[in-house]
Amino acid sequence: MTEGTGVLQGRVAIVTGGSRGLGFAMAGGLARAGASVVVAARSADAVERAAAGLRASGADAIGVVCDVREESSVASLVTATVERHGRLDILVNNAGINIRKAPDVLSMDEWREVIDTNLTSALLGARAAYPHMKAAGGGKIINLGSMFSRFGASYAAAYAASKAGIVGLTKSLAVAWAPDDIQVNAILPGWIDTDLTRGSREQVPGLAERVVARTPAGRWGRPDDVAGIAVFLASDASDFITGAAIPVDGGYSALG
Ligand code: NAP
To answer: Fewer CB in a 10 Å sphere around the end CB: N or C, the chain?
Structure first.
């Protein structure tokens, strides 16, 4: 990494769910662009490993344990970041889970777990970050939606509801905080090869092949496929883009 030349030099970013998968790839992209990154997840070992991996390639990175379902835990994450770095410029609300069950057998606890982890967490993170971004005169909030922000599946009622909700939340925060020069956007990844979708491939017969057949690019996505859009949405290059939901899907959602 070249010292001092990245478009995000001097910026400070939090990536929830940054210990693996898309979050780790986006944290790497932000760090390569010059940002100091804080990766957050529930597993202390995993966040420490992720931060050490980022530091090994020259990044300024730390891991913080956080459960995004808990308001106090999210508030502590933001406080720890601001205490260490004196600012918070970029928040990536990425932590997410899926519980694959038919809607008639999904328990209400399971419904709430998915909604709390994937959707309410983004409001908690954004609200904790807001005063710091407002005081600094601007900021960037990036929320992770999905193809399930647009489509449904028999096993994805809670997940799809949470991801469609992310788009509505993104637009509302974007409108509310545009006067503060805070841009809020969503990334809608297609099918990317991570631990999360490995579960889907194991539980949903034929899914791996169907995704390749349905994706114009003819392949599954790789976590690094979302790193570039995260850097763009975190940088000054996207200052007039807010409330958008941008697919990164190899053409999946373009195919009629
Ligand atoms: P993943 O590999 O399963 O990683 C999920 C991350 O979230 C882990 O770091 C996990 O760490 C963390 N996490 C889960 N629950 C958490 C909680 N309560 N508090 C804090 N951290 C938590 O998933 P992924 O595939 O990278 O997905 C990342 C995001 O992209 C999710 O929002 C997902 O819905 C979205 N997405 C993924 C795809 C895809 O194809 N992979 C497609 C569309 C959208 P701990 O378990 O240690 O907490």
So the answer is: C
Percentage of residues in the chain having pLDDT higher than 70:
98
- Measured between alpha carbons, how far is 242 from 172 in angstroms, rounded to an integer? 10
At residue 5 the predicted structure's pLDDT band, cuts being 50, 70 and 90, is confident
Å from CA of 55 to ligand 1 middle: 21
Which one is catalytic: 130, 155, 159, 252? 159
Nearest CA-CA partner of 128 in 158, 91, 86: 91
Is 159 catalytic? The answer is yes
Between CA 206 and CA 171, with CA 151 as vertex, the angle to 5 degrees is 145
What distance in angstroms lies between residue 235's CA and the mean position of ligand 1's atoms? 23
Q: What is the pTM (predicted TM-score) of this model?
A: 0.98
- Nearest-atom number in ligand 1 for the CA of 191 is 40
